[in-house]
């Protein structure tokens, strides 16, 4: 059975932001865990057909998540999320960046500020992510990299995982 879950992908070129609002058919605590525990992130945080592999994760204020999205051929695309402030099961802020395998940030690629909020919606959870870029040029470059399609696929994988975890 396919549920009709909210999914908004809103681009604001005046504020250089992308706002994602996504409803999940799972309790907020479980959705929070899926966003904050590497063993769960590794099961969904990449668009199909890529997979995710965590190299290091330290989920705390000032900590980070260093991971690779991996193609079937073995090609790796490295990323790093630096956590700024965490308020468990409600909210976290972080800086997202492309990196190399050692965790060094790629200065030639866009870096974004993520503001992620988790709310209860009856039996579901709503996650709002506001992604802010430093410039319109950076925002437009990630849009050209198919961010909307990538996030649609990635969040669909999270739906699939949550279904297995709530049975």
Automatic annotation (TrEMBL):
The lineage of its organism: Bacteria, Pseudomonadati, Bacteroidota, Cytophagia, Cytophagales. Transmembrane segments: none annotated. Residues 26-162 form the Activator of Hsp90 ATPase homologue 1/2-like C-terminal domain. This is Uncharacterized conserved protein YndB, AHSA1/START domain. Belongs to the AHA1 family. It comes from the Bacteria.
């Amino acid at each position: 059975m396919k549920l009709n879950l909210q999914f908004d992908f809103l681009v604001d070129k005046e504020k250089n932001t992308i706002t994602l609002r996504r409803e999940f058919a799972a309790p907020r605590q479980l959705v929070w865990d899926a966003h904050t525990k590497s063993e769960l992130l590794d099961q969904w945080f990449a668009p199909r057909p890529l997979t995710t592999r965590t190299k290091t994760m330290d989920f705390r204020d000032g900590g980070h998540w260093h991971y690779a999205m991996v193609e079937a051929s073995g090609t790796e695309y490295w990323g790093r999320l630096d956590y700024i402030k965490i308020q468990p099961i409600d909210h976290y802020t972080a800086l997202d960046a492309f990196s190399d395998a050692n965790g060094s940030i790629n200065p030639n690629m866009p870096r974004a500020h993520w503001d992620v909020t988790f709310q209860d919606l009856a039996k579901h959870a709503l996650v709002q992510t506001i992604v802010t870029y430093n410039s319109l040029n950076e925002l437009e470059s990630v849009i050209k990299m198919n961010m909307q399609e990538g996030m649609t696929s990635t969040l669909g994988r999270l739906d699939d995982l949550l279904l297995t975890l709530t049975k």
